[in-house]
């Protein structure tokens, strides 16, 4: 058995290869099905010491389809292509962030929309 090489990991699902459009859409669909409120955040770095990311617009309270969220991800990506971009899901009952995953890394051309 061999130890994996030390590598920087970025939040939930980071141990997997970059997500395809269909996989991102399914994750967002899960957020919506669970009744969580999706939001998009961006930041220049993904350091674990950075607790606060800048929110892209307001949370998407009225989003009912993954495409609505993906279109906002694309808009954020167009304006802040030099930043990490993640989708988060908020639980309005527990009043906390339940999940998050990165959908764009600066300089990575593997994330398509």
From TrEMBL:
Residue ranges constituting the Ribulose bisphosphate carboxylase small subunit domain according to the UniProt record:
9-106
**Pfam families with a match to the protein in the record:** RuBisCO_small
- Does the UniProt entry include the keyword Hydrolase? no
Annotated keywords = Bacterial microcompartment, Calvin cycle, Carbon dioxide fixation, Carboxysome, Photorespiration, Photosynthesis
Q: Does the keyword Hydrolase apply?
A: no
List this protein's GO terms for biological process: photorespiration; reductive pentose-phosphate cycle
Q: Which GO terms describe its molecular function?
A: ribulose-bisphosphate carboxylase activity
Gene3D superfamilies hit by this protein: Ribulose bisphosphate carboxylase, small subunit (3.30.190.10)
SMART domains for this protein: RuBisCO_small
Q: Which domain of life is it from?
A: Bacteria
- Main localization is other
Q: Under the cellular component aspect of Gene Ontology, which terms does the record hold?
A: carboxysome
Q: Where in the cell is it found?
A: Bacterial microcompartment; Carboxysome
Which CDD domains does the UniProt entry name for this protein? RuBisCO_small
Q: Which SUPFAM superfamilies match?
A: RuBisCO, small subunit
Name the protein family: Belongs to the RuBisCO small chain family.
Q: How the protein assembles, per its UniProt entry?
A: Heterohexadecamer of 8 large and 8 small subunits.
Function as written in the Swiss-Prot or TrEMBL entry: RuBisCO catalyzes two reactions: the carboxylation of D-ribulose 1,5-bisphosphate, the primary event in carbon dioxide fixation, as well as the oxidative fragmentation of the pentose substrate in the photorespiration process. Both reactions occur simultaneously and in competition at the same active site. Although the small subunit is not catalytic it is essential for maximal activity.
As a miscellaneous remark, the entry gives: The basic functional RuBisCO is composed of a large chain homodimer in a 'head-to-tail' conformation. In form I RuBisCO this homodimer is arranged in a barrel-like tetramer with the small subunits forming a tetrameric 'cap' on each end of the 'barrel'.
- What name does the UniProt record give this protein? Ribulose bisphosphate carboxylase small subunit
| Higher taxonomy | Bacteria, Bacillati, Cyanobacteriota, Cyanophyceae, Nodosilineales
């Amino acid at each position: 058995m061999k130890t994996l090489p030390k590598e920087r990991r970025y939040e939930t699902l980071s141990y997997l290869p970059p997500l395809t459009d269909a996989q991102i859409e399914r994750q967002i669909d899960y957020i919506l099905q669970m009744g969580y409120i999706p939001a998009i955040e961006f930041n220049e770095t993904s350091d674990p010491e950075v607790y606060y990311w800048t929110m892209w617009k307001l949370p998407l309270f009225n989003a009912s389809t993954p495409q609505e969220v993906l279109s906002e991800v694309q808009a954020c990506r167009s304006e802040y292509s030099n930043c990490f971009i993640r989708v988060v899901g908020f639980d309005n009952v527990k009043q906390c962030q339940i999940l998050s995953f990165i959908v764009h890394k600066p300089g990575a051309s593997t994330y398509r929309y």
